[in-house]
Amino acid sequence: MKGVGIAVLAFCAMGSTVAGQQESKRKLIHRSRVTNAPPVWEMMPAHLPFDPVAALGKLIYEDDNLSINGNQSCSSCHFRKAGFADPENTAAPDLFPVSRGSITTLFGGRNAPTAAYASFSPRLHWDGELFIGGMFWDGRATGQDVSGTSLPGAPTTGDPLADQAKGPFLNPVEMALMDKEQVIDFILGAPYGRLFLNLYGPQIYSGGVLDYGMAYNKIAEAIAAFERSSLVNKFNSKFDRFVREQGGDVGTFGVTVEADGFRRFTGLPAGFRSKVFTRDEAEGLALFNADSEVQLGRGQAAGGMCYLCHLTSRHYPEAYSENNVQPPNPFSSDGSYAPVLTDFSYDNLGIPLNPQIAILAGPQAVDLGLGARIDELLGVLADADPLAEIGKFKVPSLRNVADTPPYGHNGFFPDLLSIVHFYNARDVESFPDPEVPDTVNVDELGNLGLSHDQEMKLVKFMETLSDR
Ligand code: HEC
Ligand code: HEC
User: Fold this and answer.
1) pLDDT beyond 70 at 14
2) Residue whose CA lies nearest to ligand 2 atom number 36
3) Whether the CB of 407 sits within 6 Å of ligand 2
4) With a 6 A CB cut-off, is 409 part of the ligand 2 pocket?
5) For a Cys-Cys bond, which of 57, 101, 366, 387 suits 223, CB 3.0-4.6 Å?
6) What is the CATH number of domain 52-227?
7) Are the C-beta atoms of 11 and 296 separated by less than 8 Å?
8) Three-class secondary structure of residue 116 per DSSP
9) Ligand 2, atom 2: closest residue by C-alpha
10) What is the average per-residue pLDDT within 188-192?
11) Nearest ligand 2 atom, CA 351
12) 157 lines ligand 1 (CB under 6 A)
């Protein structure tokens, strides 16, 4: 997220020492707050109709045969009925925070995020203040290095989603196939092999010889097309109905924005009526949108401050190339999407180690997140400070979040209330030490001043984010 700029700068003017300390810890800007303009960023088309390429992608995505023991597909860990996350994790979040591989004694080191709405993440880039975009908790599928991947109407270019899809087939703790040649041979031999050839034959054969590199890219491209389709990104949650009922934007629902930018919780507007949300759900959204005076050291008013990173304002993706037209958007005429509840930036919430991962996967080194990509980042991004990125993980979309426990990159939190309580009380109650202490965000969370009842309302609000 962009920092909590306006409010904190305002304290500095008021001479608050707390604010002074906060300011020295991080760069503080928040563009969408300054201008009230929605964030706009370069991105891949996020939403495409379900076409033959997406249909092929779905068949590949669901094919168990594409794993060493014939028992695992993408869908095994990103299952529709589990919010496109891992059903073994969601069923027993305490015991299984991380995913089991095709070799069933092997486990990965991170919690499987939802594959839905991932398509909205732009290519990993440095926007002058923050890293934005990419796939995986640490953004390592940057979208910078997929050659030969092209989307309909787009020039050949990198795509983080297709980039990501090339990983799991060959990851030893996931589908564990030998090499890309094996993946391609299995796909050519599958019942849908003919569909693959019909769609891509001329592009993957040159002079009668199969170009395995190109074929692998096409597989990734087809999977990405499925993940961009309306089958995966449904936008049909209770929240979406509420957004429509309220006229299309709930970015400042339940708050007033004061002169210094502080968003004060006002709760339900006078005469509030909704056929969609209960009063608790609506108040939960208002808290989600509200700043906290307690957190900012200037008074008693509580608020969740969640909107800072999990955006609730409309989302305007920008076409990523000059000649690429925005894909048809079934949801609005002005090209906007309902909120995806993330800004795709990175942060360190101070989440403790999850000891359960060591039990399943063996001793773990400290997970440095985005910071572990340091070499790549240094090469590409001159004015970034890579040390500042250690321990940071991508802000996830909260769509379908109630269906995808556990929570956090290491699945430390088994349910929504426990992570909300952590945001609220991290700095005033005792929690185990953060996995990476140096870069913990102390400005925007940790002491929100929420009551238990308000925590519950935030949970109730998040439960409205599940698609049908
Ligand atoms: C064994 C379980 C497993 C399998 C199989 C698997 N994934 Fe994942 N997936 C994960 C985990 C765990 C992560 C997070 C890893 C990380 O961040 O380092 C992940 C991350 C992702 C992400 C990134 C989401 C985001 O918001 O950054 C996408 C998209 C995704 N997987 C799609 C797929 C596709 C497509 C396949 C099949 C080609 C697949 N996965 C196979 C477990 C799995
Ligand atoms: C400073 C940015 C920031 C703010 C403010 C913020 N979040 Fe988050 N949120 C994140 C990041 C980053 C993660 C992932 C952290 C990790 O796994 O290490 C996350 C993860 C989550 C998750 C877990 C999702 C999953 O699929 O694992 C939930 C739930 C969540 N946030 C809800 C909230 C709520 C509710 C609030 C307000 C009380 C809030 N967040 C405020 C950045 C933020």
Assistant:
1) no
2) 306
3) yes
4) yes
5) 57
6) 1.10.760.10
7) yes
8) coil
9) 309
10) 95
11) 18
12) no
CA distances to 124, 150, 321, 396 from 42, in Å: 10, 16, 8, 18
Q: What is the DSSP string of 3-66?
A: --HHHHHHHHHTT-HHHHHHHHHS----HHHHH-PPPEEE-----B---HHHHHHHHHHT-TTS
How many angstroms separate the CA atoms of 291 and 307, rounded? Answer: 9
Nearest CA to ligand 2 atom 43: 309
For the chain, percent of residues with pLDDT exceeding 70: 81
Residue with tokens 């495409």: 48
Average pLDDT value over all residues in the chain: 84
Distance 149 CA to ligand 1 centre (A): 19
Task: Give me the residue label for tokens 């379900």.
Answer: 50
The pair of three-digit structure tokens given for residue 325, joined into one six-digit string: 């037209």
310 touches ligand 2 (CB under 6 Å): yes
For the chain, give every domain's residue range. Answer: 52-227
Q: pLDDT band for position 373 (50/70/90)?
A: confident
Question: Using one digit for the tens of pLDDT, what is the confidence trace for 397-435?
Answer: 999 999 999 999 999 999 999 999 999 999 999 999 999
Quote the pLDDT of residue 20. 28
**Binding site membership of 85 for ligand 2 (Cβ less than 6 Å):** no
Do residues 46 and 123 lie in contact, with contact meaning Cβ atoms separated by under 8 Å? Answer: no
3-state helix, strand, coil in the chain (%, to 5): 35, 10, 55
Tokens of 97: 């925070």
With a 6 A CB cut-off, is 168 part of the ligand 1 pocket? Answer: yes
For residue 109, give the ligand 1 atom closest to its CA: 12
- Pair 340, 395: CB distance under 8 Å: no
Give the position of tokens 């708050």: 255
Range in 38-52, 70-84, 120-134, 452-466 the model is least confident about: 38-52
pLDDT band of residue 51 (cuts 50, 70, 90) is confident
How many angstroms does the Cα of residue 413 sit away from the middle of ligand 1?
A: 19
Residue that the structure tokens 């070499």 belong to = 375
The separation between CA 245 and the C-alpha centre of its own chain, rounded to angstroms, equals 26
- Average the pLDDT over each of 67-81, 141-155, 156-170, 217-231 and give the range with the smallest value: 141-155
Ligand 1, closest atom to CA 119? Answer: 29
Question: 3-class SS at 214?
Answer: helix
Banded pLDDT at 372 (limits 50, 70, 90): confident
The closest ligand to the CA of 372 turns out to be 1
